[in-house]
Amino acid sequence: MTSYDDALPGDRRLPGNPLRGAADSIPPSGLVLLAIFSVQLGAGFAKELFAALPPSAVVFLRIATGALVMGVVVRPRLRGLARGDWAVGIGFGVTLALMNLTFYEALSRLPMGIAVAIEFLGPLGVAVAASRRRLDLLWVALAAAGVVMLAPWTESASVSWAGIGFALLAGGCWAAYILLSSAAGQRFPGTSGLAFAMIVSAVVIAPVGATTGGADLLQPELVLIGLGVGLLSSVIPYSLELQALRRMPKQVFGILMSLEPAVAALIGLLVLSEVLHVQQWAAVLCIVAASLGSTRTSRRA
User: Fold this and answer.
1) For residue 4, with 0-12 CB atoms within 10 Å meaning exposed, 13-18 middle and 19 or more buried, which class applies?
2) Which of 98, 106, 176, 199 is a Cys-bridge partner for 166, taking CB atoms 3.0 to 4.6 Å apart?
3) Which residues cross the membrane (predicted)?
4) How far is it, in rounded angstroms, from Cα 31 to Cα 44?
């Protein structure tokens, strides 16, 4: 759930640096696919944690892990920041916290594939708005058709209106995250903007996560699983994607990332035994096709 277009300048103090030699031996497309599977595996394990911890507490564990690693490795500079830098950095961090919180709330109410597919409307909307071509209306219509097919017009135990609402909010936060990522990239060197935002995000989500999680957050086994979720969902995929972006065009990266809803549905099936109906699979594929189409159209433009 990140945009890395502005995180590419040569700051070598990155989480993936110790694994750089191994990553260089893997084709960049393979790194992107590994990152996608890592994110969705993290989401799958997070959903299993919901039986013991509320979504907000799991979000806190995930964000705190990422903030700790990024803070230690990148060490973002706080002195000498202008007022505008603070505003962008704090807004970036708050958006990151809300994006993860709303997505995990959606994940607790929807199958993984459906939650990720609906959330993907956020970056799709940003891409369409930036392109402004008539052909983009086709991708909007295709994505809208997918959402209509996912909506619980009939009673469905696996889909709820509340879950769809949270997923749409997460998508809106993702769109804002992409725009703020661009702004942060212009104000902060290297990856320090993202590190700063993750620290802010951890501070914002800590009171909610600590209150809802309570004493359960002190159970070692839950903390270890939560740390694993943080590594799989944030640190590992971020490192892999950053390495891939150094060796492949951003447009190709975007096309590969469009597969994420389908991978989420597959992981949901294999890890969580979430079986989607034919109509739900068709809806997910409609949103994947809309994202692929939009990415290819913007590439030609």
Assistant:
1) middle
2) 106
3) 49-74, 86-104, 110-130, 137-153, 159-180, 192-210, 222-240, 252-272, 278-295
4) 20
In the predicted structure, residue 160 carries a pLDDT above the cut 50: yes
Cβ atoms of 238 and 75 within 8 Å: the answer is no
Domain boundaries, the chain: 22-300
Q: Which residue has the higher pLDDT, 11 or 81?
A: 81
Q: Which two tokens stand for residue 155?
A: 């009673």
Element (H, E) at 212: helix 192-213
Give, in order, the Cα–Cα distances in Å from 135 to each of 49, 124, 142, 177, 295: 42, 14, 11, 25, 12
pLDDT value at position 54? Answer: 94
Please report the pLDDT score of residue 185 as a whole number.
81
Alpha-carbon distance of 131 to 150, in angstroms, equals 26
Stretch 7-11: mean pLDDT, rounded?
38
How does pLDDT run across 138-149, given as a tens digit for each residue?
Answer: 888 888 888 888
Closest by CA position to 137, among listed 300, 297, 299, 251:
297
Mean pLDDT of the 20-28 span: 70
pLDDT above 80 (res 250): no
Tell me 232's DSSP state: I
- Record the pTM: 0.84
- Contacts by residues 243-247 (CB-CB < 8 Å, ≥ 24 positions apart): 243/16, 243/20, 243/23, 243/24, 243/28, 243/31, 244/28, 244/29, 244/31, 244/32, 244/35, 245/4, 245/8, 245/28, 246/8, 247/28
Task: Give how far Cα 254 sits from Cα of 69, 156, 229, 260, 290, Å.
Answer: 26, 33, 24, 10, 12
Task: Provide the H-helix boundaries in 75-188.
Answer: 83-107, 112-119, 121-131, 136-150, 161-187
**Beta-carbon count within 10 A of 154 CB:** 6
Task: Give residue 168's pLDDT.
Answer: 94
242, 14 in Cβ contact below 8 A?
yes
